[in-house]
Design goal:
Gamma-B Crystallin, domain 1, 14 strands, 21% helix, Beta/gamma_crystallin
Length: 221
């Protein structure tokens, strides 16, 4: 009986294995493909991002929904006093063609322009911010062309002068993620978006001077 039992298991095994093995492989391939599609869908820069601009405060008045970069918003509304970021992270510009003051907004509600530290109600262009998840790493330098002292960070920095004893950043390298530099400590003052790449002089991130008081990562939660 023991021999029959063993033989029975051996003869049954290939029949069971060949059918289910093929099905299992197909199922696993299906799951892998599904996960890949979902993963890439969520990482596609223009797949899910959406922002809504309102002409009046508290999300009142004429509004415009946007889900892509736009160099000319003035055809859709004359002024902007509130914003609702449905998804993604965005940089808003005071002037057309991505010029003027920059304002970095992540998911949430902004019932008046002071909530995004705006200087006025003028928003004339906008852009989706990429690389807002995963690893973050930035290097800032004392002098142009990556010269002088260097500070590397992977976390937000509330007060750069306290950490570095310097108030000026003349060049920077963004190795991972997206970062926003602030002119003053505690994330105040003019904002400058830095995405992955090299910035040999401060004017390459559209700054008028090298003053940097704080910086932080741009997260898309």
């Amino acid at each position: 009986m023991d021999r029959v039992g063993k033989v029975g298991r051996q003869t049954d095994r290939p029949v069971f294995s060949s059918q289910n093995s093929s099905n299992n492989i197909k199922y696993e391939l299906y799951i892998i493909q599904y996960i890949w599609l979902v993963y890439n869908f969520h990482r596609t820069p223009f797949a899910l991002q959406q922002i809504v601009f309102y002409e009046d405060r508290n999300f009142q008045g004429r509004y415009y929904e946007c889900n892509s970069d736009c160099p000319e918003l003035n055809t859709h509304f004359s002024h902007c006093n509130s914003v609702r970021v449905e998804s993604g992270a965005w940089v808003l510009y005071e002037r057309p063609n991505y010029l003027g003051y920059q304002y970095i907004l992540t998911r949430g509600e902004y019932p008046d322009y002071q909530r995004w530290m705006g200087y006025n109600d003028s928003i004339r262009s906008c852009m989706i911010i990429k690389n807002t998840s995963g690893v973050f790493r930035i290097r800032v330098y004392e002098r142009p062309d990556f010269g002088g002292q260097m500070l590397e960070c992977t976390e937000d920095l509330n007060n750069l002068p306290d950490r570095w004893n310097l108030r000026e950043v003349h060049s920077a390298q963004v190795l991972d993620g997206a970062w926003v530099l602030y002119e003053l400590p505690s994330y105040r003052g003019r904002q400058y978006l830095l995405q992955r790449g090299e910035y040999r002089r401060f004017n390459e991130w559209a700054a008028m001077n090298p003053n940097v008081g704080s910086f932080r990562r741009v997260h898309d939660f």
